[in-house]
Fold each of these.
Amino acid sequence: MDSIRKERPRREDLERMGVANWPIREKEVSESERHYDEGETCCILEGRVRVEPRGGAKAVGFGPGDLVTFPEGLDCTWKVTRPVRKHNRFG
């Protein structure tokens, strides 16, 4: 399985991807288990999150300005340490 990918794209790259048109989701400070039946890409607008994949893969922290891609089939724990606002797209 692929690993979580985090990048810091330029504004032009985000515009080309149409990120501003993706739905916005919010999540309060919490901890939850996640399974990705399909991949997800999100652009963090506010907040801080640490995602811990099951199976020994390295945990990934991210915040405002990060573009994060979660692969299909990933099982992980989301630890939201500051309320999150993000654009996201599934598939």
Amino acid sequence: MPLQMLVEAIDALVDCDAAKFADPESLLELHRQLSRLDAVVTAADAAFDASGTWALDGAYNAGAWLATTTRQPKPAMAKRLRLGERLRHLPATEAAWAAGDIDAAHAAVITSLHSESSADILARDESVLVEQAKSLRFSSFTQVARYWADRTDPEGAERDFEAQRAKRDCYLVESYNGLWFGQTRFDPIAGTIVAGELKRLEQELFDADWAEAKARLGREPTLSDLRRTPGQRRADAFVEMATRSAAAADARRPVPLFTVLMGDKTLDHICELANGTVVPPGSLVPFLIGAELERYLLGLPNRTEISHRTRLFSGATRRIIEVRDRACTHVFCDRPAEDCEVDHIVPYSDGGFTTQENGRLLCGFHNRLRNQRPPPEEL
């Protein structure tokens, strides 16, 4: 029986020292086979659901039967069953998952695109989406899927965003002993605004803590030497945000900055936040009054660089590299542009120019790593 052979094979793996599979090739193969097994289990769960045999034990539905017998959370089982049912309409996705070329996360993204209104278009484009899932970083693939959904049903995308915004919520309540507890829910744009400012203030407090520890110890501190934990700094950043808001009640309100990319047809119809979150164009309309715009023309043959022999990237040259790359360009990193440095591809010491073509974003870690040893081929 195939199932018995699987049990014996897994028993043999369990009996081995896991360190024997810690090399990159073995790990990749293990994950591939794990995805394939997950695909088989999901398909079997869906078939079990369709069979109705779960009712013989008096279970309310297949999800309840599986959650009880496997001792897993009901929401997780319900999610798996929905995924298995939707896969029946998406043969290319099901085949790619069974082959180990994609996993459950990719399959969930693609199946989430299926609806009565999108079924015919998805049937046409499914293979293309699967190929994107095979080749792209997961975050990039989810962007592709979101753009596909928005272009397939633009009005639906606008409705979905408004529904998200309608769910916004925030509360802050005082407990009996004087502590305050809260929770927030924001739409993508509002969340980005709040998170960005919170991150900026938290970094200010981190820099202050680092300077204080260095002065107190007389040496470069470690994270354990800082007076505040990350959670404490975030809490203090919230307080600082409120304090500055009260102090600047009559100050000029900050305005959003919109970056417009022109001249490259591959960028047509892109509408996303700086952190990569895809949003429908209509969601930006309320922010257009008073907003600032910066326009970048890409692909112009007669572009002039200013001071290409300067040591550091600055001004418009730096900004266009930030807009173009948007994150660390190392294959194993996705740190956002604001956390990156602009690095010379051909080192400045070797005659490399400070130009767009010779610049790229690297986070501090990978910039230092690049100077310690030859970069991998992907760079």
Amino acid sequence: MFQTSRLGAHLVVSNNAYVIALDGSTPRLALSGSSIRPLAFSVWHPDGKRITTWIPTDDPVAPRFLTQPVEGGPAIESKLTPELAKQLKAVESPGFPEWRADYRFAWAPSGRAIYFERTVLGAKNIWRMTVDPVTLQPRAVERLTMSPALDEELSVSPDGRKLAFTNVSAQVRVWMLPFDSANGRITGPGRPITSPRIEGYVVNATRDGERLGIAGLQGGLSKAWEVVIRTGKEEIIMPADSYLRHFPIWSPDGRRAAYIRSFADKGQIAVWSRESRSEESVGPLSSSYGPVYDWSPDGSAVVLSQRNDTTGRVEVRQVPVDHSGPVQSTPRKIISDPNENIWQPHFSRDGRWIVFVTDKSLPQQLTCRLFVVKVGGGSWVPITDGKHWDDKPRWSPDGKVIYFLSDRTGLFNVWGIHFDAAGGQPLGEPFRVTSFDSPDLKVSKGSPIAEFSLTENHLFLPLEHSSGSIWILDNVDR
């Protein structure tokens, strides 16, 4: 997102806090340092000389805002007092943080308040934090809307008296579409196969297409389910406890599911048995694990993303999961780069290739690109050109097509590209598979976490039906 300063001389690229002068000079990073995380959202301070950034933190309750002069100088942190933090904690979701990201905010033109989003138990509302205009320290917090839906995309009028926002009602369900995976064609109408009570964002199918692993929300809380497609039976993977379980991925034989089991800021790989309905922890605890993405073709190991504590980059690591006795399996690095973050590793069925995603922050955009590499290592083969957001790659069962989500037409859809498994090169140009282009039914707006799955004859996709309206709050400056 781009935002022009009130002085009209600069743009700020909100997702990365880059400042672009309108006289054509080189873009530069306005906010940097170890405290700045990816996907931070930035806006201009009303004085047009400073930028404020909402920094994602490990605390799901208290928002953290940093304001820094464009021309350099110390940043000011707007930090809630313990008393004000208690007011937010009073409406905190029990158990675990929400999946929906809260990052949109805006300054009051007077510089005396920050308006921001806040999600609680699946509902997103607008809040106001009153601040001292000189010190920028919070004085009070107040909830302005009470909708059970999603109040978002807020905007403050130039005089500071009105605040506009959208109120969106959305339902996300996993759909099953008849699919010719060898030729990349949808062969008939699809249907939802999860109940309305589950917001299923992440879906992973067993190879025989009989079961799904689903991760999503129920009542605003993150949960994981096993779904039997034939009967529609939905059952929680493991009983409710203090742990959060992320993204269950089925083993090649469909008898086990692997995922990260986390509590607070630590996670551990866990393997759940469908037969015994119990789980076993694998490997050491870590605060740097990303999701488990795939199993090795022989089912002896899993691959996941993990942040390197030295470089700060995300790498692909492989962890053995088949052993006897209390052995601590150590993650082994298999794909890395000092300048790239690497995500979404997936093995081809024959075990020869791994497809993966890299992202890179550029002044104009955050890019996402697909590559393939031999399992034993070697040069990366580019699959897409990096001009679009291409993400979530999946192999066809025969290994001759790579499917992925892409925003090439504005909204996300499934695309594919043919792949020469013998020569290790893409063939031809990407082709479109699905055509969900309206709010009535589209790939989930939570696309950063949305995961699809496929078998030889079916495509499983989280689709969102949404409707909304625009509302205005009057006299918000009082």
Amino acid sequence: MLRIETSYFPSDNNSYIRFTTHFVSTRGTLKNYDGSMYWDAARHQLRMWYMSASGQITESPMTIDGDRWRMEFEGTDFDDKPAVLQVLVERKTNDLYHWSLAEKAGEGWKPLAGLDYARK
């Protein structure tokens, strides 16, 4: 793995934000995630959904608290077992963000992965 590239851009009608996540390695680029973030008027909440390259769809409400986005959803962990997962995206500066993934463990969260995104 050389890098992970994530891009955000408005939809053609400016009603939601589309995002893509590409994993770049020495063997090429895996275009793994493509999804959107949007306001769900019926539920009165921000939400996101994405589809992986393997066809799995993930949906989640999004909460934003200051510089932190939080998404909690059902998925699979790194052992491919069903799990409740949480993603946090925290803005450190206008050009630096920290992304982390955790799995529900009892009353708390077990960290699984994390990385920093730097705007280029």
